[in-house]
């Protein structure tokens, strides 16, 4: 008898989980609706969960129906074309679901707005009503702040790499470098030493070209510790020594320190600095 009761309990439990999953599925589609920037594709999604008499209310709008909801979102993206939606965990009670959300500007890595939505479902996998509340006091979490900082630092590091190894655009590179920034190269290299300020950097870059030509063999991988404002670029150059004409693959990691969106220091590390130095100095 106990075994039968236990089996019945499991069936009931599975039924409850299935109901919760169905409810969350409608909300997951609703969130995809807000993430979809193509109006026609979005309207198709809306029609799967939104009825002709479903309503949406927030401080900016009060509408009914599928097309009306699509128009609200169209207007939102006209105002915030680079918006990205993130949302928190869902709380489910009967046919109601609530959750917090934030909208970020993906280009500027800034918070646009935040708030909380309350959804009423119709028990058939569709949304009957959404009420949205805006929270003017919402702020990014520490993790989100660090993530935004990391993204900004990656962008600066990528521009530096592009300027140095692809476009040779030193004018643009100069805008990425803090006044008095330090560049450290191994003393054993012909162009090694410590260089302070971008004008000294350019002299070091020019001196290095007296010893070798290079091309990118492996594109960079970017690593970061946002808490330390540091980015590591790992890449491989195919170098050809001008004295000997010999070629060598050289894995390099450059450690960049950043502050307020600018590079304040770079330290270059070679896979085998001694081998590379000898390679540059050797003759035919």
Describe this structure in words.
The chain has 284 residues and is of the alpha+beta class. The protein is 39% helix and 39% strand. The chain has seven helices and 13 strands. The protein has helices spanning 2-35, 39-49, 66-79, 142-167, 170-174, 198-208, 273-281, and strands at residues 50-58, 61-64, 83-87, 91-93, 96-105, 110-121, 127-134, 177-185, 193-196, 212-225, 230-241, 247-259, 262-270. Strands 1, 2, 3, 4, 5, 6 and 7 form a seven-stranded mixed beta sheet that branches. The chain has a six-stranded mixed beta sheet with strand order 9-8-13-12-11-10. A hairpin with a 4-residue loop joins β5 (96-105) and β6. The longest helix is centred in the N-terminal third of the chain and has 34 residues, at 2-35. The protein is elongated. The chain starts with a helix and ends with a helix. The model is unreliable at 5-20 (pLDDT under 50).
Element layout with pairings:
Blueprint: H1 2-35, H2 39-49, E1 50-58, E2 61-64, H3 66-79, E3 83-87, E4 91-93, E5 96-105, E6 110-121, E7 127-134, H4 142-167, H5 170-174, E8 177-185, E9 193-196, H6 198-208, E10 212-225, E11 230-241, E12 247-259, E13 262-270, H7 273-281
Parallel strand pairs: 1-7, 8-13
Antiparallel strand pairs: 1-2, 3-5, 4-5, 5-6, 6-7, 8-9, 10-11, 11-12, 12-13
Say what oligomer this is. Answer: single chain
Bin the strand percentage: 35-45%
Mean pLDDT: 88
End-to-end Cα distance: 91 Å
Q: What level of helicity do the residues show?
A: 25-40%
- How many E-type strands? 13
> How many H/I helices?
7
Rg of Cα set: 28 Å
How would you classify the helix and strand content by structural class? alpha+beta
User: Poorly predicted ranges (pLDDT <50, ≥5 residues)?
Assistant: 5-20
- Overall shape: it is elongated
Order of helices and strands: HHEEHEEEEEHHEEHEEEEH
Quick one: biggest sheet?
7 strands, mixed
